[in-house]
Specification:
This protein is an alpha/beta fold. The chain is built from 14 helices and 13 strands. It folds into two domains: 2-172 and 350-373, Rossmann fold, CATH 3.40.50.2000; 192-346, Rossmann fold. The strands form two sheets. A seven-stranded parallel β-sheet has the order 3-2-1-4-5-6-7, with helices on both faces. α5 (149-158) links the parallel β6 (143-146) and β7. α6 crosses α12. The longest helix has 23 residues, at 351-373. The two termini are 18 Å apart.
Length: 374
Amino acid sequence: MKIGVDVRSLSEPIDGIGRYTLCLLEEMTLNNDHEWILYSHRPILHGKWDMLNVSIRTMNPFIKFKGVYFAWLQCILPFWLKQDRVDLFWTPAHRLPKFMPRSILKVITIHDLVWRYFPETMRPLGRVLDSMLMPYSISSADKIIASSRSTANQIISEQVKAKDKTSVVYLANSIELKKQILKFDTTKNDFILFVGTLEPRKNLRRLLEAYSLLSISLRNKHPLVIVGAKGWGNENINLIIEKLNLKKFVKVLGYISNQELAKIYNQAHLFVMPSLYEGFGLPVLEAMSFGIPVVTSNNYSLPEIVGDTAILVNPKSVSSIKNGMEEGLLDLKLRHKLSKSTFERSKLFSWKKASKETIKVFEQAFSDRYKLIK
């Protein structure tokens, strides 16, 4: 097949969808049975794509105007796909163009339905676009890939007819597991770690309130380190820290490189992510792959990812989050058990496996179309 891929997430600073796209494509393009064409409205910044079976098509970087992405997605991209005689188009980022040629098979990955379950945590424009385009994308796609069984069930709840064309393909760890000799110079090895975009859905206000309820001795011994880029609707984290008198105990590092992130994962004492909603929860899996005891939410996809290898808390309860952190810090027998079990469970997830399962979805879409024609 000639497979077209929407890689616009690789034309911007890397985020969760960008990591998913990059890691999966790096594995899939090793499959020489297919030809791959990567499309974006801007030059691609991430990945090495100098393979014989991969080509790239992007817009002129000097073309800049408000709404360029939307115009590219809905008008220019479908024209390119038709011109390049693509057999199948895959978007790893929720939205399909509305004016796709019928001859081209359409596969979409849906990571979550935030616009349906937590719309108040999204940018207004993103919420409107997702509420308009995702139902259309679900109905018009030939195949749908969901990042978790939880997300798959939500897709089917949205449109019952999607059941027969929806497959679950789990993500994997995208941070290299390497023992780092150098210490991360702004932290100690006994810190509590949070990793994620700083936005309302990540529940940082309750996390900080819960942390403030820990005893002073625990806070002195276990500072809280927050890693992540600022997202939309981000409350002033530093202001919350100041109001809770936590400046001495909390360090906000912002966005850091993958290399720095690997170092900091390797040194963390406890990982905490009490998110209100996740379609998968990649930072949780990353922490698990480093053998860090994990405290996370008891809802949506997160129990599915961690199984019985983590401490689950009610993300809407400050006391539940606080109790979960205390348990993870003070119960040494449990800590040892979780550290071993999280590492072992993380081995169930790999990009090689995800690559094979994703290509299988593509080939099944092609096979189903051929059967219908035949």
